[in-house]
Each structure stands twice: as structure tokens, then as C-alpha cells.
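Closing statement on the magnesium ion sub-project.
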Amino acid sequence: MSTNTNAKFILIVDDNSTNLSVLSEALSGAGFRFRVAMDGESALTLVERNHPELILLDVQMPGIDGFETCRRLKENPATKSIPIIFTTALADIESKAKGFALGAVDYIPKPFDQAEVIARVKVHLQLKHLTESLEEQVRDRTTALQKAQVQLVQQEKLSSLGEMIAGIGHELNNPINFIVSNIEPLQEHITGISEILHLYQQEYARPSPKLKDAIEDLDLEFVLKDMAKILESLTLGAEMIEKISTSLRTFSRSDSETKSLANLHECLDSTLMILQHRLKGQGDRPQIQVFRAYGSLPSVLCYPGQMNQVFMNILANAIDALDEAIVQGKMQERVPQIKITTKITSEERIVIQIADNGTGIPESIQERLFEPMFTTKPVSKGTGLGLAIAHQIVVEKHNGTLSINSQLGEGTVFVIEIPVENI
Ligand SMILES: Nc1ncnc2c1ncn2[C@@H]1O[C@H](COP(=O)(O)OP(=O)(O)OP(=O)(O)O)[C@@H](O)[C@H]1O
Ligand SMILES: [Mg+2]
């Protein structure tokens, strides 16, 4: 009998010593390791500690019989996949059928024919190994498929979002050019007309009563001064739209096959600009304050469009967490805020921290956040792909790391680290 408890073995369960010795002889003759149990209870205890590869189980035994032993083994998720072969003198159809119904894989009648025992044991061990390797393949394929799916969704999200935003940026460009390019001539015309009006007033110091009334009704002096102010605010507005248009185009830059040098602060700013509408206060909800503690960063060789996607996912999650904390009434004593810190380490690694003081994340789920499809949000709100995508982009495309530091009820910090040279 084997003394090595960790090695693979076959378990024989039988209360009859003659049967035991016949089976033992057959198995050891064929080079199998095995262990024995004389009743159902001790078989269950033994299996609990050490999983055999296969069990030869007698039906009729004192205490719990073979059927009950089989039922309990199949009920336990840890032992249910161990193949069980019943051994019994009962050749009647009913007990065979009962054994199979309970999940047995085969039946060996007594008295034993040693060659048959070995042949059946070999077939079932082989089947078990094949099943295990199939299961392993299915697991591997599922992981590969999930990964591919994340990539596809990421590309699709990027391209549809990118296209739309680039489109808007482009569409904004023409009208804003009309406004910007016409403001200056308009200003000149107005100045010219004002001068002429003043000249009229000097040359014709006594206007007719009709003209005098009209000038008073209009409050000409006020209108002339106000026009200058209106023009100033038009200029300011036009400049703001120009900035938005530039941000939209920075955000939606499509990535070519190779990496390009990018200013990550510009990427962060354009992403924040796109999320502006979600940061603003709405109704009872206060505005979310954004602090930028930007260090001095060199240009980084990266896929800027994809880095924008990372920032977008992490910032959108932070806003969701703040919204949630507000709904739960947990933000009464603090102002909702997001703080973005950037720096470069002495090892030439860029570190970007995005911190929020929202709900925080329970420790029990922190490990699962980067799993595709893991979400705590309602179906209509979250797909659970945001962080899986961000993780893939940072780790696989940029050779970096993405980690979390979170305290339930206090807030969360996401830390992105990528080497400056990450080719
Ligand atoms: N800043 C954060 N604060 C609290 N919980 C967070 C934060 N960021 C992520 N989480 C948790 O991680 C989960 C997974 O985030 P992930 O971005 O991958 O998916 P999602 O936001 O649920 O859906 P979507 O695919 O729309 O992004 C979230 O459902 C949330 O529970
Ligand atoms: Mg998300």
C-alpha cells in the first residue's frame, strides 16, 4: 500500500477482507497506488482529507451503505467529480440503475475478474484525465475570449466615441471661425460709426426735435458704451468655444499603430473638459471640485487616445462614487472632490494619482475590480468593463501598473504608473 498521502491513488471501499485482497492484488499488480476503507464513514473521512482519483465502492456495507456514501460524495462540490465505480454481487437491474442514477460511472460485478477490473479502472481514469484537460482548455479559452472581448469593446468604444467627438470638434470649428473672424471687423465698423455719430453731434449741435427725441429714447450714449462690452463678452465666449473645440480634438485623437509623444496633462485636461457637465452642480447636488496638483512631466511616448480612455474610465468612476455618496447622504460634512496628482520618479516612471472622496470600495471586492464584467452598478448604468479596459491599456500596452488604494467611507485613489520609455 502507498504511504505517500499526496500521491494519486485509488480508494477501495469494502467491508469484506477477501474482496479487499482480490482488488488490492489486481491494482498493485497493474502498478496502481491505492488505499482502503472498510466502511462508508471512514471512506468519507479519508476522501475529505485526500482526494482519490477514483473510488471502487461496495454497495452492501454495515453503517451507511454504498449508495448513501455515493450520494454524500456527489453532494459535496469538492468531491463530486471523483468517478465512482460500484462493486457488488447484486446483479439485479434495479441496484445497477440506482447506482447510475446516483452518479456512478460504472458497475463491476463480484466475483471479480481481475483483468476486467483493471480494464474498467483504466478506461475511467483515462476519461477523467480527458475531462480535466478539456475543462482546462475551456477555462483557458474563456479567459482568452474575455480578453479579446475587452479589446473589442475598447476599440469599439474608442472608435464610436472618438468619431462622434472628433465630428463635434470639427463641426464647431467652422461656425466658431465665422464668429472669431468677424468680431474684429465688426469692432472696427462700430468704432467708425460711433466716431461719425459723435462728429454729427459736434457739427449739428442742435438736432431737430424729432432726432432729439429719438436719441433720448434710445439712450444713445449708453448704447455706444454697452456695444463695446457686448463685443468683449462675445470675444470671451468665442475663445471659450475654441478651447472646447481644441479639447474635443485632443481627446479624440486616434492612435496610429506606433506610439507618439504626448503631453499627459493636456490629455487629462481635455478629458475633464468632456466630463465638465457631470462635474457641475445640479439641483441639490453640489459641484464636484477638481484639484490639479500637476508636477513637471516630460512628453511621454504612448497611445494618447488610449490614455484618454483610461483617464475617462477612472474619472467617470470617481464621479459615480461621489454621486453615490451624495445620494447615501454621506457628503454632508465634506465637499465632493477629485484630486489629480502627477509626478515623475527617479526611476523615470510617470505616476498619476486620481483620488476621490466618495464611497470608497469594500476590501472584499477590491481584488475583483479589474475583472471584465465586474460591476456593482445597475445593469443600465455599468457594464463592468471600464477598469478591465483601463488595466489592459496601462499594463499591456504601456508596460505600466494600475493599482487601487481605498478606504470604505473615505474615498479611493487609483494610481497609474507608466515608464517614460515604455516601448
Ligand atoms: N472610484 C471608485 N469608487 C468606488 N467604487 C469604484 C470606483 N471605481 C470603481 N469602482 C467599483 O469598481 C466597479 C468596476 O468599475 P468599472 O469601471 O470596471 O465598471 P463600471 O463602472 O461598473 O461599469 P462601466 O463599464 O460602465 O465602467 C464599479 O462597479 C464600482 O463598484
Ligand atoms: Mg466605470
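The chain has twelve helices and twelve strands. With this model delivered, the sub-project is considered complete and its resources will be redirected to Aim 3.
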